[in-house]
Amino acid sequence: MDVGPGDELSPETAISRWKLAAWQQYQHMLDKTTPHVLRRWIGCFVVACIYVLRVYLVQGFYIVSYGLGIYILNLLIGFLSPQVDPEIHDGPTLPTRGSDEFRPFVRRLPEFKFWYSITKAFCIAFVMTFFSAFDVPVFWPILLFYWVVLFMLTMRRQISHMIKYKYVPFSFGKQVGICQTLIAEFIVK
What we know:
- The protein has 189 residues and is mainly α.
- Helix content is 62%, strand content 0%.
- The chain is built from six helices and no strands.
- The longest helix has 25 residues, at 140-164.
C-alpha cells in the first residue's frame, strides 16, 4: 500500500519501516563482506585487540572475558565438527577408505557464521565493559587456568574424534596426486 501526500503514518508503522530499512541495509553490508574472508578476519582481530586493550586498561571485567572465552570455545567446536556426526548418524558417513566416494567436509558451523558470531561476541563484551555491574571481582589466574585446562581437554577430545573418523576440517584447494602432477609436467614438456 502506497502512502499518498494526504495519508499519515502511525508512529508504529514509521518505526517498523525504519527498522526494516536499517535491517536491510545491515544485511546488504554483511552480504557484501562474504567473499572477503581475509579482510573479515583482520577486522575481527582488530575488534578483539580493542577489547583486550580495554580490559587491560581498566584492569577488570575478567568474568566477561571468561564467558567470552567459553563462548568462543563452543563456536570453535562447532566450526571443527562435521554437520553429521559419524558416531550418531546411521546414513552415509565420511569416507574412511580410499575406495569410498569423496564427500566434502561440511561443517556444523560455517566459516561466515563462525566469524560473525565471534565478532558480535567481542562487540557485545566490549559494550559490557562500560557497565560496572559486569565487573565482578574474581581472581583472574584461576579463571585463566580453568579455561586453558578446559580448552586442552576439549581439543584433545575433538582431535581424537577427527583421528577416529578420519576427517580433516580444513582444505587448502584442490588435492592433486603425485601421478597427476608428474603427468601434467610430462605433457607440458
